[in-house]
Amino acid sequence: MADLVHEVYRPFAVGFRPTALTWSGEAVRACASSWLLAHREDELVGVVHQTPDPAGHTLDALAVSVPWRRHGIGTQLVAAVEDRALALGRRRMVIALRDSLGANIEFFTSLGYRPTQPFPPAHHLYVKEIGARE
């Protein structure tokens, strides 16, 4: 999992150091149950880290292998995180997105995430309310 995250995030390290690059194999293994995986045939093609949080269920380190992008895998992983959050009784999703990564912002806003507040340095928190209201 860490190898896939590093493969996806390493190209961004030219302008800044993505926090996703802090995930080592050891760190991933230490919290393996908080990762969701996508496989196609026997190949690991996508991963996302997710955790409950007082501010809302958070997701980070979404990574889809380059040849598998634009096949709906990222969308499926985000939906799976939202399903897990609902199963835990959470109704709010939160992700920090770097202001300079327009494609990431476009992807998450297309899924219903909306900016709420700055998250220094150089990020904004994006939130999505999920599940039926009672």
Highlighted features:
alpha+beta; 134 residues; six-stranded mixed sheet; 6 strands
Folded structure, characterized:
This protein is an alpha+beta fold and 134 residues long. It is 28% helix and 32% strand. The protein has helices at 2-9, 25-30, 73-87, 102-110, and strands at 35-40, 43-51, 57-64, 92-98, 114-119, 123-129. The chain has a 6-stranded mixed beta sheet with strand order 1-2-3-4-6-5. The chain is globular.
Order of helices and strands: HHEEEHEHEE
Radius of gyration: 14 Å
- The oligomeric status of these chains comes to single chain
Specify the biggest β-sheet.
Answer: 6 strands, mixed
Average of the residue pLDDT scores: 93
Beta strands, count: 6
Strand percent estimate: 25-35%
Task: Sum up the overall morphology in one term.
Answer: globular
Continuous helix count: 4
Query: What structural class should be given to the helix and strand makeup?
Result: alpha+beta
Low-confidence runs (pLDDT<50, min 5 residues)? none
Spatial strand sequence of the major β-sheet? 1-2-3-4-6-5
Distance between the termini: 37 Å
Fraction of residues in helices? 25-40%
Chart the SSEs and their pairings.
Layout (H helix, E strand, L loop, with lengths): L1 H8 L15 H6 L4 E6 L2 E9 L5 E8 L8 H15 L4 E7 L3 H9 L3 E6 L3 E7 L5
Parallel strand pairs: 3-4
Antiparallel strand pairs: 1-2, 2-3, 4-6, 5-6
Please summarize what this structure is.
It is built from four helices and six strands. It is globular, with a radius of gyration of 14 Å.
